[in-house]
Prior knowledge:
By secondary structure, the protein is of the alpha/beta class. The protein is built from eleven helices and 19 strands.
Amino acid sequence: MANVIKLRKGLDINLKGRAEAKKIRLKSNGKFALVPDDFEGVTPKVVVKEGDKVKAGDALFVNKQFPEVKFASPVSGTVSAVVRGERRKVLCVKVDADAQQSFVDFGRKDVSKMDGKAVVDALLEAGIFGYINQLPYAISTNPSVMPKAIFVSALRDKPLAADFDYEVQGQEQDFQTGLTALSKIAKTYLGVGKESSVDRMKDVEITAFDGKCPAGNVGVQVNHIDPVNKGEVVWTIGDPTVVLFIGRLFNSGTVDLRRTVALCGSEIKNPAYVDMLVGEELSTLLSNSYDASKSVRIINGNVLTGKPTTKDGFLGAHTSEITVIPEGNDADEMLGWILPRFNQFSVSRSYFSWLCGKKDYALDARVKGGERHMIMSGEYDKVLPMDIYGEYLIKAIIAGDIDRQEALGIYEVSPEDFALAEFVDSSKLELQRIVREGLNILRKENS
């Protein structure tokens, strides 16, 4: 086992509805869609048209800035629609799956005999390179700039997060192949939990992180192992299933975008796991899984960083959980804030629930307060285990002071690093949105 890094800052939020370690089988309705917005920083150029026949692994769209970065169809079938929004923005490319699936054969490869360029070329050809992100800017990476290192996090510690140790069972060889392939490109670091089943992998430097959420954030791990300075680039994989995608490509020669998803949340009747393909429609998964008469929030992802969706939505490219919690718009609390609230979670101990010890909570989606002036109270620092001044960085982004942002470490952060700070923020600011806007502005300034 490699070295252990202990993190004192952070916050674990215990919620009801964690998925049991069992799988349910569902028959897909054959509706799929690849959503460009799942790949941050990508401007899509659609390379198929309605009615086209595609195989699993054929490109549906490419990155307009880097056309060699393709995005593969998860299934074979017929392109049913290219859905566009305002100003013709591509919202998704829909595919109706064939009953009998066919795959593009990219050929099996022995990664031990490949160099970094050959690995990158293979990932580009198969349309899965775009699943790798980069710091700075926390965007889908640029293949023309080689990284100083690659960081993979196999630790999922957000509320109700899917257990990667459960997902990887029986797929250890694919995971090892994916890590070996990445190690051919640059030195690769693997971040794991204290008791991980993948802490004996080869060809990578393994670090165990002992601490509360967000210890599993790949940005937090980069900050503690090899921070990013101005002018440097690291590639990051915060979603360890991507390593399985890479390993399957080299071991089988085909694109297999299957992932194990946790169906979870306090509103789910029987929380469990299910195997799904990227872009699969959620209606099959969510039918009869919760009480449709209640007002609920369906989240494509976890409660901290996921996006609201509907039954007609599609599984995100990096989504490992579909979470269903109460919306809270029908809550009627007599006397409101003056009640002791034994069943409500509070970081500041303003509710009496802290007397109940460690328990699971059924929280809803209410913000419980409006946006107000930012208070420099040190709230962010308590849950941000990084060597940066979070509150000052947020102020610099709001003020548009680029020099100050650079001095305060904006190149090291991604929006998800501020998810917990957003949760505890008494000012009710949308910190993840603020950080994303700051990174986008900085990227345009430096381009």
